[in-house]
Amino acid sequence: MAVKIIQVPFCFYPDLSGGTEVYVEALARRLTELQIQTVIAAPAVSEKSYLHRGLPVERFSVAEPASLEELYGEGDPVAEESFSRILEKHKPDLVHLHAFTRAVSLRLVRQVRRRGIPVVFTYHTPTVSCQRGTLMRWGKEVCDGVLRLGTCTRCTLQGLGIPRPAADLIGSIPVPVGEALQTAGFSGGAWTAFRMRSLVSRHHKVFRSMVGAVTRIVAVSEWVQELLVRNGVDPEKIVLCRQGLAQVSLAPALRRRSGSPIRIAAFGRMDPAKGFHLLVKAVKKLPGLPIVLDIYGIEQGKAGVGYGQAIRRAAKGDTRIRVCEPVPSAEIIRCLREYDLLAVPSLGMETGPLVVLEAFAAGVPVLGSRLGGIAELVRDNVNGLLVESGSVSEWKRGLDRICSQPALLERLRKGITPPRTMDDVTQEMKALYRQVVGE
């Protein structure tokens, strides 16, 4: 298959990167091994070209947002112009987007389509369609993901800290009023709230335009596939292709010595949506429980640092809880082999997460939230346990069950099967690329 493909993630190494970037790098490497020429293009402060462990990388520049309309709208024109130069330089046969942001935007999709090049888009995180970023309505209940202007506006406002009654009232302000405020120059601070309905309306239109303009959409979990269909996307346009691991463990997890504490690990961004605070509360409510909890949190930006500090304060005084330095992605499986259990207390809808597959690769069961992709990967009482998200008492009960039933962990270990790999993903992507380019 003699084609050139540009893969476009949210960011890329050497910048601090997450699961999507791990996925993109692994996919690019496997495609290269299959003689499919692959270039990674990601937004950055300025343009530059370099090799990342042999992979060609192009960075296109992004400007500071000029207005709220740009943040919620079609995207950054500077990024569009910079990305256009990458298209002219490489002349790809296909572009595969792995993000939908102000930088990786509808403007980029249109630039690609104007050149007659097909676009594949992968829905990796709820931020693609949800202004709140979690798909948890009011922060508590699972949302069906349908874009409803009134509901989405009120939920967004409540997520920004506005009390529910006020959010209901402000969220009812008609779109033309918000647009008039913008025209009159009222922006920032409280005015943003009064304009929120018009801003969310703009984002909904852009999302619908994007899913209409791309050639195929890859859903990495069933709930994403269902969300897209509920929002009117043609089911024939959607391809279900679950995530896979770039590496697998060559040895099983180390077994716990009789009488020693149960070792529990948690990985992820330091973000309230990851639920680490809930996990810490549950552990502290069981002071006599023989466990060790290690949280490997990645502190991104000011908010991440603040949440990390909050977790350390919450854990203070309990020597069983430790906040550890992040582990490089290539080392997570090896690190997990030293634990008895992975905890995934997410409070939002996850499309993976990859760490669940990494735990299975290490032979480690999972205690996870009964939400989204976690619930699709973890089979309750087979290879892990599922508990209701957001409930300290449920997490407390789950931890207590693990400790009070000595044979449970071993039974769950035996229920683990080898996880899907990036080789599986790449073969499916190769078939999709061949089909799309052929069309």
What does this protein structure show overall?
The protein is α/β, with parallel strands linked by helices and 439 residues long. The protein folds into three domains: 4-124 and 215-244 and 422-438, Rossmann fold, CATH 3.40.50.2000; 136-201, no CATH class; 262-414, 3-Layer(aba) Sandwich (Rossmann fold), CATH 3.40.50.2000. The chain contains 18 helices and 16 strands. The protein has helices spanning 19-33, 68-72, 77-90, 106-114, 149-159, 164-170, 175-183, 190-194, 196-213, 222-230, 276-284, 301-315, 332-336, 354-361, 372-377, 392-404, 408-414, 422-438, and strands at residues 4-8, 37-44, 48-52, 55-61, 94-97, 119-123, 136-137, 141-142, 216-219, 238-240, 262-269, 291-298, 321-324, 341-344, 366-369, 384-387. It is globular and about 65 Å long. The mean pLDDT is 92.
Architecture blueprint of SSEs:
Layout: E1 4-8, H1 19-33, E2 37-44, E3 48-52, E4 55-61, H2 68-72, H3 77-90, E5 94-97, H4 106-114, E6 119-123, E7 136-137, E8 141-142, H5 149-159, H6 164-170, H7 175-183, H8 190-194, H9 196-213, E9 216-219, H10 222-230, E10 238-240, E11 262-269, H11 276-284, E12 291-298, H12 301-315, E13 321-324, H13 332-336, E14 341-344, H14 354-361, E15 366-369, H15 372-377, E16 384-387, H16 392-404, H17 408-414, H18 422-438
Parallel strand pairs: 1-2, 1-5, 2-4, 5-6, 6-9, 9-10, 11-12, 11-14, 12-13, 14-15, 15-16
Antiparallel strand pairs: 3-4, 7-8
